[in-house]
């Protein structure tokens, strides 16, 4: 059996729902017919004859046709007039009770198959088209029972995708008519491309869509827009293309099968044509699997060239965006008096999309010098502008006009994604989130993330000079002075050679501690001297240690940082009163979102994040922000510029700054190669020295090594101590004067009392003396009675021992006790500087004692 018979059997059984189960029921039930008429609406005698022969052959193949079933053909000629065709179908086919209709189409018209489909569909008779390829027949709402053995024209979009993938074209422009077929091929291309590119890396995107009306005579305006696009791959064909040099070298045209039949098809156009598309007989054969094969060497491209075009037009004038970020981009606003920027600056206007105002600025810096070098190296011109919203860009949810929510990029990244810019020359960090939507060059600077904080300043208190020793050590030193002094006193006290006093021991210890030498009051005992030498050594060590630590605390040591890095417990612990932040929507912000172990820290710092890095750095300087987490390049620059700022810990989250480009941009390779060449030539290193370090880092290093100059704040406590000593001395002298006056008054009262006592004692002595004198006088008188009246001998000293020598002259000689009285008077005069004024001169009239 021929392949035609097999194909017809498959289609017939499918269309009239005849299978083995129905046939068995048909034999058991006489209601089912045994004769089936198959109608044919064909375009020529040859097709009609071949169709009739095929039907007759099927009746003898019981493999497909059960016994007792017979097929008969009923054919008519298709007419160019669809109305006549419909009438013929009703008259010659439907009246014959056909079960299915096979229809071809007139080469010069496509409406007749539609008439057959409408007519047969009304009677629910299946129609099989063997050459109709219009997209309209795929609409099952209209052509309910229409089937076909050939693909519609819009299925060529599937082959286009294969060809684009084969030639590695990434951008295309689709030109289509506004009719059903034109819109169908566009929809098919867009729908199929979404699933087709899931498994491959290279994705072709539609850069522009041009829809034209069939009656439009000129497409000039459309072609002007197409020339401005980057893509040079065009799908379909347009009549006026050649007028604007769109069919010359470098362009690629892929057209539909219908366009290949046009008279003005330019050379080098690629097209698809269905195999045996005009041979109805071959389309009634068993299907064959065909595979697309392309021999690139045999293709002659537009312009008569053999080399495959790049498929894109590389623009030489680019729109470049940047953002203010010192030291990479410095932005200065033009004043009213200035007409243009300076020689080392580039004009960079800022267009505010909110209020529609355009402000004029001038930009310079690291990235601006890099942009100039790139433009010179790879030969392009540019227009520079600032980021419209002043942000690098982050992926956020936005409400659309259709009341749906979708994610969109903002800032610089959004301008690239939505093709409103060609290039981003800024400190743009390379990360996975951004690389999914835009292209990056090789990094022009490698960096990481670090922490900026202000150096903790050591507070200068009034007791700064006490900082070298702890409070405990000061107490121990003071106690040691008095303890050793007490031991020295005891050693010298109990030593047989000692003569030490407690006050002398205190003075000796204090002299040794103050390194003022040992005075004269040194201990004399050997044991005390040994202890004194040990104490002198102790005092020398204490004083030397104090001096060294004082220099370390007040002069040499400079506090570095309070944080050890990102792993510092104070950053991870949300209970600590330490604020840290970064910039909203930045690469650092995305890094913290990705890191699970930093989630707690990110939740804490998210509320403190800033809009710009400039604000955060200023708050660090003002101590409003404890730690600012940002790119190391910027923070190293800030630390080099201001020696009071310092970066804490090691770098983390290492990455690099790259040039941002559109996805599949033709400039990607050229920019990358230029940057690699800049690294090798040392150009990037020169930019680092000029803009980032700027010579200030050496000044900071010198500043770190230079000792601090001690000021009044550092040594104020010492001066206050001296002042306190002076005030204390004045206070003590006042106390001494008051005490001395009080002591003088007390001594005066004591002296008066003593004088009164002496007077009383003198009176008592006088009375005793008088009594003794009277007694001796009596005894003497008694003795005179037994001796001559003339005194011629000395009184016996042994008889009167208390009586001194008998005076030779004066009244004292007239009585035996006169010498003792005279002696007492002389002693008193020597002590008092003369005879007391308050005691009368004592004389004794002893003339009456002489007989």
Automatic annotation (TrEMBL):
Q: What ranges does the record list as Basic and acidic residues composition bias?
A: 822-831
Q: Which Gene3D superfamilies match?
A: 3.40.50.2300, Periplasmic binding protein-like II
Q: Where is this site: Interaction with the cone snail toxin Con-ikot-ikot?
A: 593
Region span, Disordered: 802-837
Annotated signal peptide: 1-23
Q: List S-S links within the chain.
A: 643-700
Compartments where found: Cell membrane; Postsynaptic cell membrane; Postsynaptic density
Q: What is this protein called?
A: Glutamate [NMDA] receptor subunit 1
- Keywords attached to this entry: Calcium, Cell membrane, Disulfide bond, Glycoprotein, Ion channel, Ion transport, Ligand-gated ion channel, Magnesium, Membrane, Phosphoprotein, Postsynaptic cell membrane, Receptor, Signal, Synapse, Transmembrane, Transmembrane helix, Transport
């Amino acid at each position: 059996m021929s392949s035609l018979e097999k194909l017809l059997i498959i289609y017939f059984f499918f269309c009239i729902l005849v299978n083995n189960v129905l046939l068995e029921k048909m034999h058991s039930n006489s209601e089912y017919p045994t004769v089936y008429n198959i109608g044919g609406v064909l375009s020529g005698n040859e097709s009609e004859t071949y169709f009739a022969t095929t039907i007759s052959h099927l009746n003898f193949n019981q493999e497909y046709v059960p016994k007792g079933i017979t097929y008969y053909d009923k054919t008519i000629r298709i007419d160019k007039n669809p109305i006549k065709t419909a009438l013929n179908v009703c008259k010659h086919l439907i009246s014959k009770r056909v079960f299915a209709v096979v229809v071809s189409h007139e080469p010069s018209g496509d409406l007749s198959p539609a008439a057959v489909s409408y007519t047969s569909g009304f009677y629910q008779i299946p129609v099989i088209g063997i050459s109709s390829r219009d997209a309209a027949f795929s609409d099952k709402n209209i052509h309910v029972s229409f089937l076909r053995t050939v693909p519609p024209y819009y299925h060529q979009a599937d082959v286009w995708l294969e060809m684009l993938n084969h030639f590695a074209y990434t951008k295309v422009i689709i030109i289509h008519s506004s009719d059903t077929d034109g819109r169908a091929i566009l929809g098919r291309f867009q729908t199929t491309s979404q699933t087709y590119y899931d498994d491959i890396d290279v994705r072709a995107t539609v850069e522009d869509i041009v829809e034209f009306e069939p009656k439009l005579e000129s497409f000039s305006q459309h072609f002007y827009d197409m020339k401005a696009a980057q893509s040079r791959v065009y799908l379909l064909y347009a009549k006026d293309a050649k007028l604007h040099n769109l069919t010359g070298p470098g362009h690629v045209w892929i057209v539909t099968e219908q366009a290949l039949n046009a008279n003005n098809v330019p050379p080098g156009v690629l097209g698809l044509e269905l195999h045996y598309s005009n041979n109805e007989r071959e389309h009634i054969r068993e299907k064959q699997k065909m595979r697309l094969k392309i021999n690139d060497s045999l293709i002659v491209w537009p312009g008569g060239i053999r080399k495959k075009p790049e498929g894109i037009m590389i623009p030489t004038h680019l729109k470049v965006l940047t953002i203010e970020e010192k030291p990479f981009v410095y932005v200065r606003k033009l004043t009213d008096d200035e007409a243009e920027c300076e020689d080392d600056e580039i004009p960079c206007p800022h267009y505010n999309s909110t209020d529609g105002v355009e402000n004029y600025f001038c930009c310079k810096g690291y990235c601006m010098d890099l942009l100039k070098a790139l433009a010179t190296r790879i030969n392009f011109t540019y227009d520079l502008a600032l980021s419209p919203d002043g942000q690098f860009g982050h992926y956020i949810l936005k409400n659309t006009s259709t009341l749906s929510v979708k994610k969109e990029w903002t800032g610089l990244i959004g301008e690239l994604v939505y093709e409103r810019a060609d290039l981003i020359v800024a400190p743009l960090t390379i990360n996975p989130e951004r690389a999914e939507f835009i292209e990056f060059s090789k990094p022009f600077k490698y960096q990481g993330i670090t922490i900026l904080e202000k150096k903790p300043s050591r507070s200068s208190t009034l007791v700064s000079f006490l900082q070298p020793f702890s409070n405990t050590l000061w107490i121990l030193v003071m106690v040691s002075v008095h303890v050793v002094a007490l031991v020295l006193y005891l050693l010298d006290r109990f030593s047989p050679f000692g003569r030490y006093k407690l006050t002398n021991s205190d003075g000796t210890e204090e002299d040794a501690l103050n390194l003022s030498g040992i005075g004269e009051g040194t201990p004399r005992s050997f044991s005390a001297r040994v202890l004194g030498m040990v104490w002198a050594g102790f005092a020398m060590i204490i004083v030397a240690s104090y001096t060294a630590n004082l220099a370390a605390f007040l002069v040499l040591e400079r506090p570095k940082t309070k944080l050890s890095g990102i792993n510092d417990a104070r950053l991870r612990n949300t209970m600590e009163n330490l604020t840290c932040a970064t910039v909203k929507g930045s690469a650092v912000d995305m890094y913290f979102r990705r890191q699970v172990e930093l989630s707690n820290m990110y939740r804490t710092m998210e509320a403190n994040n800033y809009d710009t890095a400039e604000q955060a750095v200023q708050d660090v300087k003002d101590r409003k922000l404890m730690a600012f987490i940002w790119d190391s390049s910027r923070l190293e620059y800030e630390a080099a510029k201001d020696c009071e700022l310092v970066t804490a810990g090691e770098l983390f989250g290492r990455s690099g700054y790259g040039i941002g480009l559109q996805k599949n941009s033709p400039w990607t390779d050229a920019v990358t190669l230029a940057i690699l060449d800049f690294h090798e030539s040392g150009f990037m290193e020169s930019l680092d020295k000029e803009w980032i370090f700027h010579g200030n880092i050496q000044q900071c290093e010198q500043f770190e090594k230079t000792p601090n100059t001690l000021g009044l704040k550092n040594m104020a406590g010492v001066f206050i101590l001296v002042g306190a000593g002076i005030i204390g001395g004045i206070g003590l002298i006042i106390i001494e004067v008051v005490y001395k006056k009080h002591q003088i008054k007390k001594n005066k009262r004591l002296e008066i009392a003593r004088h009164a006592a002496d007077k009383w004692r003198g009176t008592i002595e006088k009375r005793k003396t008088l009594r003794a004198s009277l007694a001796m006088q009596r005894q003497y008188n008694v003795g005179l009675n037994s001796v001559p009246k003339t005194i011629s001998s000395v009184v016996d000293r042994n008889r009167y021992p208390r009586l001194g020598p008998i005076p030779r002259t004066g009244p004292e000689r007239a009585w035996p006790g006169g010498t003792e009285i005279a002696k007492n008077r002389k002693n008193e005069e020597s002590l008092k500087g003369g005879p007391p004024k308050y005691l009368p001169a004592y004389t004794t009239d002893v003339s009456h004692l002489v007989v």
